[in-house]
Amino acid sequence: MSENKNKVLLVGNLGSDPEIKMTATGKKVARFNMATSESYLNAQGEKVTETQWHHLVAWGKMADKAEHELHKGCEVSLDGKLIYRNYVDKDGAKRYITEIYVYEMVVLQDRSKAEI
Questions:
Q1: Which of 85, 78, 74, 70 is closest to 103 using CA atoms?
Q2: Which of 59, 66, 51, 57 shows the shortest CA–CA distance to 105?
Q3: Whole-model pTM over 0.70
Q4: Paired sense of beta strands 94-109 and 19-22, if any
């Protein structure tokens, strides 16, 4: 069975425009952040909204699509996989990063083009 067991499906809003870069080997990469929110009623009956921020990375053709179609505020649905990595910062401290590598994405709503 060769099916991907590491799968993430998110629907949320971009917090910034994608940052586009080229690697030393000439491959395009897009990095951007997405917010997902959920609301519930607490024990006092008050509505509480919790927001989670996700770090997203798109490579190659997906990076091209992100560059041309995505911008801050867009509502986007995406599929990807979780990636965990670490590095040592300039002060010698070990840092950990959780990212989602994007395989597919669809713009659901573009707030800049929505009618008021």
A1: 78
A2: 66
A3: yes
A4: unpaired
